[in-house]
Write a structure and sequence with these properties.
Blueprint lengths: L1 H19 L7 H11 L3 H15 L5 H15 L3 H14 L4 H13 L3 H14 L4 H13 L3 H14 L4 H16 L2
Helix pairs in contact: 2-3, 4-5, 5-6, 6-7, 6-8, 7-8, 8-9, 9-10
Length: 183
């Protein structure tokens, strides 16, 4: 009986700990985003954003993890349609997993399906409004469709997340120069 209680208690807390540390709902993210807002050095910003990406990629289900990772591998190899099939499976199984929507948006973008990409970016941002990767993807779509003013608005939103990001500031400056040339 005592052994049963021990095993039950262990499994209970193990299961709870898994559900606390997965995807965009992870409690560690608020701390990291707070650090990101005050980070001044590009190296520190990159370190924090990498930590955030790692958390966004965490999934508490082994089969879903395999499908997600296979989708990422297919996308990295240029098999975008096949990657979308895997991301579809993940989204069907875990519709609140923001990173699956973001990865599928990326695959659609790579195929030139900007409307579908934008729909998935919208879903990603609904689940995780601070998703700087999805915002950056939206900015790229606006650039490809010559909507420079909208791209500038996206970069402003990104600068709210990490105000000292040199890379984001440079992207915004480039869009500003393009938008002034077209007027």
């Amino acid at each position: 009986m005592i052994m049963f209680k021990f095993i039950f208690t262990f499994l209970f807390f193990f299961t709870i700990s898994l559900s606390l540390y997965a995807d965009q709902n992870d409690k560690r993210l608020n701390y990291l985003f707070d650090k990101l807002a005050v980070a001044e050095e590009e190296k520190e910003i990159n370190k924090i954003t990498n930590q955030i990406w790692k958390i966004w990629h965490e999934i508490d289900d082994p089969k879903t993890t395999r499908d997600f990772e296979t989708g990422v591998q297919m996308m990295n190899l240029g098999y975008y349609k096949r990657s979308i099939d895997y991301f579809d499976k993940v989204i069907l199984n875990k519709p609140n997993f923001a990173e699956a929507w973001n990865k599928r948006a990326t695959a659609h973008f790579m195929m030139g399906n900007f409307d579908l990409s934008m729909q998935d970016i919208g879903q990603t941002l609904q689940l995780e409004p601070r998703h700087f990767g999805a915002l950056d993807g939206m900015g790229l779509i606006f650039i490809h469709t010559n909507q420079h003013e909208k791209a500038i608005e996206i970069y402003d939103k990104m600068l709210e997340i990490f105000p000292n990001s040199i890379g984001t500031k440079l992207k915004k400056e480039k869009m500003l120069s393009l938008s002034t040339k077209s007027t």
